[in-house]
Design a protein that fits this description.
binds magnesium ion; alpha+beta; binds 4-amino-1,4-dioxobutan-2-aminium adenosine-5'-monophosphate; 16 strands; 8-stranded mixed beta sheet; OB fold (Dihydrolipoamide Acetyltransferase, E2P); about 475 residues; BirA Bifunctional Protein, domain 2; Aa-tRNA-synt_II; globular; 13 helices
Length: about 475
């Protein structure tokens, strides 16, 4: 007989039907007459209760059904007596597929700290919290493709190995096949990459945008969804060295169109989670509430599902960087009355404490900031007529700060080349990018959504290491 998934058994109303279920034991408890085994197979947050007659199966077998062991159960669906689930299964046959030594197994049937679970990340999929997050993550991936497909966007795969630095921040991981102990050098003593695999220096991509722009300049509306890599040595709860980014790029879009799309996109994803992941979200919401109990009233965050609905129901506030700086200059964010990084007026880069203050305390709504000083933004952004600000947009979310970064692009060849020179971007090497501005250039815009930042928001988790299965952070690439 084929196995039925636990999620399907729990939905079933076929009382009396015989089925086979397979999964991992979460707990076993019971009396001298009957044992109750909570079985989970990853298909749902809920466990299936297996009822096993002690006399029928005997102590020797039942003792092997420890937390973490893998079993196969043939049994009959019955209506559940207890509260919780509608149905349970009375076992007719139980087979141990894989034993699990309870003295060795790191996961116990109790709540473990997230820090501890990170140390045993290879087993995290067997916990409620991480399996819930993995299912929500999958739903969000699907929703991203749904959203853009329904709008006629084409998904484009951009390269992971590139020779360019889209953001110009120099935070790249080098790719090389050369023997590190014996690197060929040029006469000036620099590493000679011309002798390497690609004949030039290459790195893991920080963004698919530049190639995305090439595609948009023929396909109109495209999006990328791929891994991106940043060697920024920032050990924060919102930065990863390897993260996934969704980057739509649209010909004939100006900044306002770009903002409209970003807002619609985020709301679509959140609504999709509420419509399709309620079981998991309810579990995660409860988890969060328990965690928040220890905090002072004023530091507690909003209840998760309420917070998600709240974003759907409100228009995002749109204002310029300089308006934001004026607000921040005169604000008293806390009892001390100051930010950790003071705002010294126009030109200061905003830290996440400033972004979160605007969203959580000042406007109490998501905010889109536009028109940043050119000095703190990337070379490709379109210059405003004031010659000092660019058509950038950052979407700021409660709990997260920056969730999306984007802009209208500079479509004018001369202006773009000038800007590249000012910022020491090697224009000659990017002739292919500049060609889009030489041949049929059009206004265009795009943005990047950090997928794990979205996941932080949707799941209410506090640390980005907990919303990606295998986090890559400084000093951390064990598994
Ligand atoms: O603001 P960023 O650097 O923008 C770009 O890369 C543009 N090329 C996007 C575009 O216009 N097509 O990054 C975009 C988003 C950020 O808003 C943030 O959500 C996320 O990517 N992000 C990170 N997420 C996790 N870890 C990191 N180290 C991140 N750096 C950026
Ligand atoms: Mg940014």
């Amino acid at each position: 007989m084929r196995r039925t998934k636990v999620s399907d058994v729990l939905k079933s109303d076929e009382i009396g039907k015989e089925i086979v279920v397979k999964g991992w034991v979460r707990t076993r408890r019971g009396s001298k007459q009957v044992n109750f085994i909570a079985l989970n197979d990853g298909s749902t947050i809920h466990n299936l209760q297996i009822v096993a007659d002690v006399e029928k199966f005997g102590d020797e077998l039942l003792k092997r059904l420890t937390t973490g062991s893998a079993i196969s159960v043939t049994g009959e669906i019955i209506a559940s007596q207890g509260s919780g689930q509608k149905v349970e299964v009375v076992a007719k046959a139980i087979e141990v597929i894989g034993d699990c030594d309870a003295n060795e197994y790191p996961l116990q049937p109790k709540k473990h700290s997230l820090e501890f679970l990170r140390e045993i990340g290879h087993l995290r999929f067997r916990t409620n919290t991480f399996s819930a997050i993995a299912r929500v993550r999958h739903a969000m991936i699907f929703a991203v493709h749904n959203f853009f497909t329904s709008k006629g966007f084409v998904n484009v795969h951009t390269p992971i190995i590139t020779a360019s630095d889209c953001e110009g921040a120099g935070e790249m991981f080098q790719v090389t096949t050369m023997n590190l102990n014996n690197l060929p050098r040029t006469e000036e003593g620099k590493i000679d990459f011309s002798q390497d695999f690609f004949g030039k220096a290459t790195n893991l991509t920080v963004s698919g945008q530049l190639e995305g722009e090439l595609a948009a300049m023929g396909m109109g509306e495209i999006y990328t969804f791929g891994p991106t890599f940043r060697a920024e040595n920032s050990n924060t709860s919102r930065h990863l060295a390897e993260f996934w980014m969704i980057e739509p790029e649209m010909a004939f879009y100006e900044l306002d169109d770009n903002m409209d799309l970003a807002e619609e996109f985020l709301k679509y994803l959140i609504k999709y989670a509420l419509d399709h992941c309620m079981d998991d979200l309810q579990f995660l919401s409860q988890r969060l509430q328990e965690e928040e109990k220890g905090k002072k009233e004023e530091d507690r965050s909003m209840e998760l599902i309420e917070k998600l609905r709240f974003v759907l129901e409100n228009d995002f506030i749109r204002l310029t960087y300089s308006e934001a700086v004026n607000i921040l200059k005169d604000s008293k964010p806390n009892k001390k009355g100051q930010f950790k990084y003071p705002i010294n007026g126009y030109g200061s880069d905003l830290q996440s404490e400033h972004e979160r203050f605007l969203v959580e305390k000042h406007f109490k709504k998501p905010v889109i900031l536009t028109d940043y000083p050119k000095e703190i933004k990337a070379f490709y952004m379109k210059m405003n007529p004031d010659n000092s600000t660019v058509r950038a947009m950052d979407v700021l979310f409660p709990q997260i700060g920056e969730i999306i970064g984007g802009s209208q692009r500079e479509e004018n060849y001369d202006k773009l080349v000038n800007r590249m020179k000012e910022m020491h971007i090697p224009a000659e090497e990017m002739w292919w990018y500049l060609d889009t501005r030489r041949f049929g250039s059009v206004p265009h815009s795009g943005f990047g959504l950090g997928f794990e930042r979205l996941m932080l928001f949707v799941t209410g988790m506090g640390n980005i290491r907990d919303v990606i299965p295998f986090p890559r952070t400084p000093k951390n690439a064990e598994f």
